[in-house]
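Before the break, one more example. Copy the sequence into your notebook; we will annotate it together after we see the structure.
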Amino acid sequence: MTSEEKSTWIVAAATALIFGWYTVKILVDAATTPISEIQYQDLLVVMVGVFVALIIVSHIVLAVLTRTIDGSDERDQKIDRFGEYIGGYVLGTGLLVVLGLAMAETEYFWIAHAALGVLVLAELTTATTKIIVYRKGF
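Here is what the structure looks like once it is written out:
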């Protein structure tokens, strides 16, 4: 397994873990609090910070444990490009939904979480696509 593939696994796992936790937290709050009163902004900022820190620390640990510098080859670059291409379609399509919510003057809570959902879905689609191509080939 190349370091690029390991990196993809790290990003996929961190994305699912952190944003999954955030989603459960918001759903629990929504069960007891009206949507308009949920204070999600601070939690969202902290969660994104934790996500970035987790990715950085995980990659540092990966680099220390593997202690190899196996730069990406042509195959890694093609897989990366293909995964980003597919994820880009998900992102672009999803942002049209977010734009529609903003144009309909929906509450900020829904717009923010739709945008977050689209970003997470696009990232998971990108990572999943890359992992499938690493495992099965083009």
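The helical segments are 3-32, 41-66, 74-103, 108-136. The chain has four helices and no strands. Try to locate both features in your own notes.
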